[in-house]
Amino acid sequence: MADSTATNTPANATTPADAPVAEAPAAPGTPGTQDIAVPERKINRNLETEHGTTAIEDVVVSKIAGIAAREVSGVAALGGGGARMLGSIRESLGASEDVRQGVSVAVADGMANIDVSIIAEYGVAIHELAEAIRRNIMTAVERMTGLEVDRVDVSVTDVKLPQEAANEQDPETAIAPQN
């Protein structure tokens, strides 16, 4: 009769000697191995469900971001000089203001990356303004679209001086000769 107290030691192991042995993977940076970074694909559960997917175009996100940026106190305008010039021409022809002006968006795999170009009002703390813009855009885009906003980059292209604001409000004084 066999001893029931026998242990499974190498001497009485039940695994054949020629059975393949699983090896631990080599540590990163080990000579003779190659480190391969495999990016993890994020799936946005708000946009991919068991019932179907929702595709949100860049133009939708850029409109939401443009409106959200304009809502922040201290933002005089969006876009650089060229974009603003085209915008004023468009408005003079009777077209409505393009809320996407100064906003660039890339949407991929349920993630949005947003670039916004602004003109700040003179006197505001630009770093605080940029953070407020970032927060407002992220909140609006995530709430309205379900997309996850990865980053919002803010470029400040100009500062609107108080005299420039006064000239816009009263165009006759801007043209009138100074005596």
UniProtKB/TrEMBL annotation:
Q: Which InterPro entries match?
A: Asp23
Q: Give the protein family.
A: Belongs to the asp23 family.
Q: Which PANTHER family match?
A: ALKALINE SHOCK PROTEIN 23 (PTHR34297:SF3), HYPOTHETICAL CYTOSOLIC PROTEIN-RELATED (PTHR34297)
- What Pfam families does UniProt report for this protein, alphabetically? Asp23
Stretches of Low complexity bias are at 1-33
Q: What ranges does the record give for the region Disordered, renumbered to this chain? A: 1-36
Q: What is this protein called?
A: Alkaline shock protein 23
